[in-house]
Predict the structure.
Amino acid sequence: MGSNILHDTNMSKHPFSDFTNLYPLSKTLRFELKPVGNTENMLMENNIVEIDKNRKLAYERTKPYFDKLHREFIQESLNNFEIDGLEEYLKTYKEYKTNKKDKKLFDKLKKSKAGIKISSNSVIQ
């Protein structure tokens, strides 16, 4: 009987077996939107593609300004911000992490969390 060299169990392992099935197989799926029925005519009649191109250009031009405004808003909002009790909470949390079964530490952690006070002297609230 003829024997297939690749499937012969008596022979040593395949020479490429150290290089195969090492990683999961990844596949990329690609989809395409194709207009159906009267959709293409409606898009052309209403000039949708041109309107979207103009909207994209306007977005690209204005985005840096909105990003700057957003950064300034965040900076101003957090400028005069204070958090009281955070150090105590962090200390208690680190203790609790080393011994999660200690009920007293858990209660102390909850109490210190409730004791955190946030205050802001910012104009924006």
